[in-house]
């Protein structure tokens, strides 16, 4: 039997596992299909990398974002793993074909649900021994699948084609309802479920109601100026992110905006600058953050009401991954709750679905998210009846998510409400828990940001591990 602590030291340089990691690794190595829920910052990546390195066969990792794929490829290369590849839309057709042809020479393959659904990709993977299928950020099956990426709803069929020895679904945000969606979607009725608490006691969960957008903007600026270290501010509109970024720069605070309207190179540049401490603040929509593993984010600030407690938990979970205390704040304006309630109902209705199914080609170039969603379902091979069923259920789920988010605002203890939603044990209320930010709370935050750049020696070690054999 493999000595897991020795393997952990050999491959990753760690002496001990973080809570929850070892049980997941053991389950995978024992051949058990597994659903694992660990809080953000708990090292979920290691839970598939370590068993993947120890077990035979190809490791296929389904990721939701191109940036996340590229980050994971880079991390494995830093570990000295050369047999790693990604199949994505960024590859030219000839390069895509070349990677597909040489997959038998790889150990890790990163791929999106849409690419995995391609017949040529499934046909090639069917020829190879797949030891481990990993669905990272598996909550996307429940949330993104019905909303705008129907390929997530086809992962169970893809799994049946690949016939992996083991399947591992990983996420940080999955109440029981989402856990059930994941197991159903992946067709894993007998999976081992290893569910950890989502509690992050080093995060202060701040919520403040403000009388106007102007007062909220001033309050946000004051928080940014009061907190030392990297910060992320979330907006529900691209223009708002751009305008606040400009306002911060006018106050000599290095900031940039990030949203889906930027080109891929522009988004990559902003992300790299933030990771390298060349920017203090990112003003972003929900397009930014998944897979961002910057350990020293000291403030995550919401200037709108998140659509769900899952989204809220994901967002605030980007703070304090180094284990030190961090501040998360939700600053609400007078119309935020009403606007979020309207958004919760914004899915295509039956008439629109029927119209597009009658003439799908006539709507392919429409710049409308609801039309694009129905077109995506059609391209993924869903029938009209299946789309109606999926979106009807999702509309109910979104309304329930909005209600849970709104209830959190009224809860005496925000942390207790969040833990209850995720079926995690409640913790005693403390001064560094939740509510309005106070000087006493602010005083507990680290006041000295970490050094901005790695030393030359650190980079030399990394390059040596990339370019030399293990």
Automatic annotation (TrEMBL):
Domain (Helicase ATP-binding) ranges: 25-192
Superkingdom per UniProt: Bacteria
One protein family per Pfam: DEAD
GO molecular function: DNA helicase activity; hydrolase activity
Statement: the UniProt record of this protein carries the keyword Membrane: no
SUPFAM superfamilies per record: P-loop containing nucleoside triphosphate hydrolases
Coiled-coil intervals, chain numbering: none
Record-annotated Helicase C-terminal domain positions: 222-367
Gene3D superfamilies: P-loop containing nucleotide triphosphate hydrolases
EC number, UniProt record: 3.6.4.12
Name of the protein in its database record: RecQ family ATP-dependent DNA helicase
